[in-house]
Design a protein that fits this description.
mainly alpha; 21 helices; 543 residues; 56% helix; 2 strands; two-stranded antiparallel ribbon
């Protein structure tokens, strides 16, 4: 997977614009409202006079601020998921049209499944993190906003690649309550060939489907007009994001084939797959689009890494202890595949230290057992409880969230995005932090809360940062967060959302924008190692 060779189109000329075309059998939803271009297509650009020449009636990003369907920053703030979905609809319609021109069978069997899978997407947390990081760092002009939505759509396509191929590697028959893509396409041809051939065909086709989603994601990034001076950093972050995703997945596979059960290896995989891929890199991309300085970006990434690790720890717990109906996938999938998660690795380490032969026997017998029965799974659950691994992982996840929020609260951010971003980080981690991270107490969620609150987040989860608390003044005292990336952060401006909730914040332009002539990658990535995040008791005692 080679990093995209996109150029900075803001400086080197605009990419070709694509018109939304609804195709037969296409999942595209054409927006009915809004002004129309001269060709009858829907769009939101008002500068018809700028449309001239051979492409008349088809707005270009550098001329009108974005592709067809862009309704402005204010509308995107109200519903980021819908804004990203509009970009996906437009781009997928174009990709399906091109795929059908290549070959109708390929388009119907593969391209259409990739489009359906992506459009049905989950909560779109990664693209929302990217958007709100851009807004929190002062971004809000049309170029930054359109770029954030397009990169968010690219991240969703990258997630399609990851999930489709992950289901093949895990031999998981279902995803999001439906047949996994490899199972679905295998069933389509199952009546004509032997079951093993149909299954193998479905797996091979799903690998190609993942490759197609990745190619489309790269196309989106390559065709995005970026704010001046951000092209190099955005391309570097995008390349890192893709490489880290693959590396994390490979470590999972390598651990299964070698039987590695070490906690350091499990933590490294979790850091790559969740802390970096799911949280830190989307935050860094949003900050880069806004032109945030290195200190701001580093502090956001440090917070995001902790939130992402907490997410993965709680996901490990959910895989073992949740039911099929709540997740859309069978419980105990990681156990069946023999994955050494942080939860099972810690249980093994505890059992070895205590000389608990029974616990080790249960874990050894269950890990990698594809026909694991409900009784077998319950035995594993009992070991995870008895060794204290479950309690430790749940407590550690809460402390990581508290640590991440302390770092976040020390950064001077724009109110237009800071509150919603903080809210989203807490929701992404799966709930509230453990312990009195903020003795002042988070402000309760008021009426009229943001429409972007991810579905399923329990009420009462900390909402926006309390008004009146100064930047750079963590409630736990001056020694709470001596992180090098935030040591020089200004310490006087609160970033709580204004009265009325996140949706009431002005979007016409930030009052203060954190910028720097040459934004740099986050230095936090070199300071926070997986082991230091997991075993740092100095901060745990303050969380």
């Amino acid at each position: 997977m080679r990093p995209t060779q996109a150029t900075d189109h803001h400086e080197a000329g605009a990419p070709p614009a694509f018109r939304l075309v609804a195709l037969a059998r296409s999942p595209v939803r054409v927006r009915s409202g809004g002004p129309r271009g001269s060709d009858g297509s829907h769009g939101s650009c008002e500068w018809d006079a700028a449309w001239s020449g051979p492409s008349a009636g088809r707005p270009e990003p550098d001329r009108c601020g974005g592709p067809d369907g862009f309704e402005g920053v204010r509308a995107a703030d109200r519903d980021v998921r819908a804004a990203v979905s509009r970009v996906l609809d437009q781009e997928l319609a174009e990709r399906l049209e091109r795929s059908r021109a290549v070959d109708p069978v390929f388009a119907d069997d593969l391209a259409l499944r990739v489009a359906h899978f992506t459009q049905r997407g989950g909560k779109r947390v990664r693209s929302q993190l990217l958007w709100w990081a851009m807004r929190a760092c002062g971004g809000g002009d049309d170029t930054s906003a359109v770029a954030a939505l397009r990169l968010g759509a690219a991240v969703e396509l990258l997630q399609t690649c990851a999930l489709v191929q992950d289901d093949v590697m895990d031999r998981s028959p279902r995803r999001r309550g439906r047949p996994a893509l490899h199972a679905d396409i295998g069933a389509q041809y199952g009546a004509a060939v032997a079951p093993d051939r149909a299954g193998r065909f479905g797996e091979a086709a799903a690998v190609l489907a993942g490759d197609l989603a990745l190619a489309w994601a790269d196309d989106l990034v390559a065709g995005t007009a970026l704010p001046a001076g951000t092209g190099h950093l955005v391309r570097r972050l995008w390349g890192d994001l893709r490489t880290e995703m693959v590396a994390g997945q490979y470590l999972d596979l390598q651990g299964q084939i070698t039987g590695s059960r070490s906690l350091p290896r499990a933590l490294r995989s979790a850091c790559l797959k969740s802390a970096l891929y799911s949280v830190e890199r989307p935050l860094a991309l949003g900050a880069a689009l806004a032109g945030a300085d290195g200190a701001t970006t580093g502090a956001l990434c440090s917070a995001g890494r902790r939130i992402g690790m907490a997410f993965q720890l709680r996901d490990d717990v959910g895989d073992v202890f949740s039911d099929d109906e709540g997740t859309g996938r069978p419980a105990g999938g990681d156990i069946r595949e023999g994955k050494s998660t942080c939860l099972t690795a810690l249980a093994r380490a505890r059992a070895e230290a205590a000389g608990d032969r029974l616990a080790l026997t249960v874990l050894d017998r269950a890990l990698g057992k594809h026909d694991l029965s409900p009784a077998d799974l319950e035995e594993v659950r009992d070991i995870l409880r008895r060794t204290g691994a479950l309690e430790t992982i749940e407590a550690k996840a809460g402390r990581l969230v508290a640590q991440g929020l302390r770092r976040f609260d020390a950064v001077p951010l724009d109110p237009a995005g800071a509150g919603p971003l903080r809210d989203l980080l807490v929701a992404a981690a799966g709930g509230t932090p453990a312990g009195p991270a903020d003795p002042a107490g988070p402000a309760g969620r008021h009426e009229g809360a943001s429409a972007n609150r991810p579905a399923g987040r329990p009420e009462g989860t900390p909402a926006n940062r309390p008004a009146g608390r100064a930047q750079g003044s963590p409630a736990t005292g001056a020694t709470a967060d001596p992180h090098p990336s935030t040591a020089n952060a200004p310490a006087a401006r609160p970033h709580a959302s204004p009265p009325g909730g996140p949706t009431a914040s002005p979007t016409t332009g930030p009052a203060t924008r954190v910028t720097a002539p040459a934004p740099a990658p986050a230095p936090a990535a070199q300071h926070d190692t997986p082991l230091s995040l997991f075993a740092s008791h100095s901060e745990d005692s303050r969380a």
